[in-house]
């Protein structure tokens, strides 16, 4: 059985706000019964101040899904929608004194329900970007579709590169054999599609070109980061130093060190010179190997 | 006979104290069983006085070697084998199954196909997936909604290209039995070697391998009151065989490595006990199981039995409960001192329900809510009462929390809840 924290157990056995909020004016529905977890979040938002006055959840799912839902309602009651919108799944996990890595997706579901409810309140449509593939890395919930996409986009060929780019296999290492199988398939695919026509990049001549090229690389990487609930902004460039701001789930993520290393590698390739990336503002860089 | 030792344990070396032993309704006997105290008594001397190496010629080794031969005869009796020498001791059933399949494909190198089912234990499933990547063609025989093997696909897959058939005798999740003897006879017509994973039947129902088409059979000690770490592989005399572990003459060269003597003695004792009492145990356990099952179905709406209720091992009951998730149920049962198991995704850390539930095409509303209760000779009436007393309320509590269920009306309301991604 899982090694749940006392806080998780407490929120599971005595959940807070397990109810439907009466006269709710924001509803967020996410999940599905076939996936094994689903959550309906109902909120009562004060239309003048946009403060969440009450929140309730209904959850179908495992112990940590119920605990994450309960924690979410406790966190957001009394916050304005704007404050609530910046809450990440890590905040939910932290509130519960952590979740087992395989259960982090439960906190993601909480965050998504919140985003869906906020979109519902504002009359917008919540766009879900879930891809349904075979789950490969259980620790970071990464499926084969995601790995294939990144492998194809970046012409990856080794296991180490896949770990670097996707985080898959970066924690417990149990899925390394499976990642190699996915890689084999991808390599067969692009061998069948013919040799790629890659040209070595030329060094940019002006600073404008340089900024443009850095932005292009960041745009390519952005979907990956956003899939994890994070993002990156270019802050400044000085000679071979690129200053970046990691935001959302990326800031404070235990793997932001690995993310920066990956960005650094891609920028160096694109600019044809050795680039050093410096994080600015907020982003904490953990000790090497420190998966928190 | 004391069934349960209530003293707490402290490690004499590190001083580390183990938590107090748990007394409760242990209904997870398909995962593992309590070691029978009579088995413990039988094995203890081989951890203390009789420590010699059974291969040694001197007086320290001799009684140890003899004890192994006695155990071999006891296992022979349990499975109804013609000769004791057909039994080879292994470290577990996974080793036995792996040895059986690898031996068969090495012994018949010109045959590049394997037949197995979609509901096998991971030990077989993942080995076959591995062999598929190495170039073998695997025929994955499907099952129907009740978990019964599709005999037509099985017959169609058999040919003289097939090296080995590996089929479980009883399914670990549902207890459903496959018609192993008939399937083995069909395999013989094509000269195919037949292996059965008998882990969930050994000690639970009487079995007889002599005069059957079964060439290889795997079993595990800890599923019937021996300790973990010992299993056996039956190899019918005359079967082409290649060892998996090489490097010693133990087990007549069929399984190298110094014997786990105390474990083997324990497996022998457990086999002897099972053989003596299998008839009466089976009747009593089946009665308890049926009382549990009928009681739960009567008290919980939208629940049903998975697997083939009319043809399964007597100790297993797998109930699928709609609109709730298995792990939540297990956590709450655990609060009440009840141990059960679930094929739900969240228990295993994957996002999909178990391959057995998927192979049976269990409706998606129930696949995550399948709870398995598995009984043993130590299961009591009180344990069944306990489950019947608490589970209906647990289900009610979780359903009240579920967006898919309307507790006031006592029925699902899926139509009113259609989340963003489905």
TrEMBL record, chain A:
Its cofactor is [2Fe-2S] cluster. The keyword Phosphoprotein does not apply. Keywords: 2Fe-2S, Iron, Iron-sulfur, Metal-binding, Nitrogen fixation. Residues 135-185 form the BFD-like [2Fe-2S]-binding domain. InterPro entries: BFD-like_2Fe2S-bd_dom, BFD-like_2Fe2S-bd_dom_sf, FSCA_dom_sf, N_fixation_NifU, NIF_FeS_clus_asmbl_NifU, NIF_FeS_clus_asmbl_NifU_C, NIF_FeS_clus_asmbl_NifU_N. Belongs to the NifU family. May be involved in the formation or repair of [Fe-S] clusters present in iron-sulfur proteins. This is Nitrogen fixation protein NifU. It comes from Corallincola platygyrae.
From TrEMBL, chain B:
It is an enzyme of class 2 (transferase). Keywords: Iron, Iron-sulfur, Metal-binding, Pyridoxal phosphate, Transferase. One of its GO terms (molecular function) is cysteine desulfurase activity. Residues 26-387 form the Aminotransferase class V domain. Its EC number is 2.8.1.7. It catalyses: (sulfur carrier)-H + L-cysteine = (sulfur carrier)-SH + L-alanine. The keyword Transcription regulation does not apply. Signal peptide: none annotated. It comes from the Bacteria. Pfam families: Aminotran_5 (PF00266). Its cofactor is pyridoxal 5'-phosphate. PANTHER family: CYSTEINE DESULFURASE (PTHR11601:SF34), CYSTEINE DESULFURYLASE FAMILY MEMBER (PTHR11601). Catalyzes the removal of elemental sulfur atoms from cysteine to produce alanine. Seems to participate in the biosynthesis of the nitrogenase metalloclusters by providing the inorganic sulfur required for the Fe-S core formation. Homodimer. Belongs to the class-V pyridoxal-phosphate-dependent aminotransferase family. NifS/IscS subfamily. This is Cysteine desulfurase. It comes from Corallincola platygyrae.
């Amino acid at each position: 059985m899982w090694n749940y924290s006392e806080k998780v157990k407490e929120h599971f056995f005595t959940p807070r706000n397990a109810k439907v909020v009466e006269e709710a004016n924001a509803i967020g529905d996410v999940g599905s019964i076939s996936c094994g977890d689903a959550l309906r979040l109902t909120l009562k938002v004060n239309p003048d101040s946009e403060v969440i006055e009450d929140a309730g959840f209904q959850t179908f799912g495992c112990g940590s899904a119920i605990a994450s839902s309960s924690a979410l309602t406790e966190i957001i009651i009394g916050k304005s929608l704007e404050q609530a919108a910046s809450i990440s799944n890590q905040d939910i996990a932290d509130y519960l004194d952590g979740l087992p890595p395989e259960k982090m997706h439960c906190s993601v579901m909480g965050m998504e329900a919140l985003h869906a409810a906020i979109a519902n309140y504002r009359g917008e449509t919540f766009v879900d970007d879930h891809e349904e593939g075979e789950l490969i890395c259980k620790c970071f919930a990464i499926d084969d579709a995601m790995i294939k996409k990144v492998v194809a986009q970046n012409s990856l060929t080794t296991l180490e590169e896949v770990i670097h780019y996707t985080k898959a296999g970066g924690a417990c290492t149990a899925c390394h054999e499976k990642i190699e199988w996915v890689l084999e398939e991808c390599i067969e695919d692009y061998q069948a599609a013919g040799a790629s026509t890659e040209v070595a990049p030329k060094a940019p001549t002006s600073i404008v070109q340089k900024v443009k090229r850095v932005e292009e690389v960041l745009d390519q990487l952005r979907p990956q980061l956003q899939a994890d609930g994070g993002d990156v902004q270019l802050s400044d460039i000085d000679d071979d130093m690129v200053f970046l701001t990691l935001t959302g789930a990326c800031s404070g993520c235990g793997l932001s060190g690995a993310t920066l290393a990956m960005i650094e590698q891609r920028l160096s390739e694109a600019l044809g010179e050795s680039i050093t990336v410096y994080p600015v503002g907020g982003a904490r860089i953990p000790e090497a190997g420190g998966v928190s | 006979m004391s069934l349960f030792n209530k003293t707490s344990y402290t490690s004499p070396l590190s001083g580390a104290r183990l938590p107090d032993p748990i007394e409760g309704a242990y209904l997870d006997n398909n995962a593992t069983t309590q070691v029978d105290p009579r088995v413990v008594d039988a094995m203890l001397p081989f951890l203390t006085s009789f420590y010699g190496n059974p291969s040694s010629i001197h007086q320290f080794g001799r009684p140890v070697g003899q004890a192994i031969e006695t155990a071999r005869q006891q296992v022979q009796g349990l499975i109804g084998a013609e000769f004791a020498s057909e039994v080879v001791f292994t470290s577990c059933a996974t080793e036995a199954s792996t040895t059986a399949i690898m031996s068969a494909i090495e012994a018949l190198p010109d045959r590049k196909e394997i037949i197995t089912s979609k509901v096998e234990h991971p030990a077989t499933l993942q080995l076959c997936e591995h062999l598929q990547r190495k170039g073998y063609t695997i025929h994955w025989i499907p099952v129907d909604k009740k978990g019964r093997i599709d005999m037509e696909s099985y017959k169609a897959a058999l040919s003289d290209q097939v090296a080995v058939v590996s089929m479980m005798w009883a399914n670990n999740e549902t207890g459903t039995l496959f018609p192993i003897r008939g399937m083995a006879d069909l395999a013989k017509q094509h000269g195919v070697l037949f292996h059965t994973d008998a882990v969930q039947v050994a000690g639970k129902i009487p079995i007889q391998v002599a005069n059957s088409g079964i060439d290889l059979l795997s079993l595990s000690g800890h599923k019937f009151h021996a300790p973990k770490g010992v299993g056996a592989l039956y190899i019918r005399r005359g079967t082409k065989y290649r060892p998996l572990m090489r490097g010693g003459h133990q087990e007549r060269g069929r399984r190298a490595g110094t014997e786990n003597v105390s474990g083997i003695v324990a497996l022998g004792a457990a086999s002897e006990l099972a053989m003596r009492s299998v008839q009466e145990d089976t009747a009593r356990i089946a009665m308890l199981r049926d009382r549990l099952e009928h009681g739960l179905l009567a008290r919980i709406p939208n629940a049903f039995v998975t697997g083939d209720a009319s043809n399964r091992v007597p100790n297993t009951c797998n109930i699928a409960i709609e609109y709730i998730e298995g792990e939540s149920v297990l956590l709450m049962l655990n609060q009440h001192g009840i141990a059960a198991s679930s094929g739900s995704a969240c228990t295993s850390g994957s996002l999909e329900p178990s391959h057995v539930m998927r192979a049976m095409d269990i409706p998606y509303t129930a696949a995550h809510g399948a709870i398995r209760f598995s009984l043993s000779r130590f299961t009591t009436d009180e344990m069944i009462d306990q489950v019947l007393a608490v589970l209906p309320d647990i289900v009610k509590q979780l359903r009240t929390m579920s967006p898919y269920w309307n507790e006031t009306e006592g029925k699902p309301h899926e139509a009113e809840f259609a989340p963003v991604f489905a």
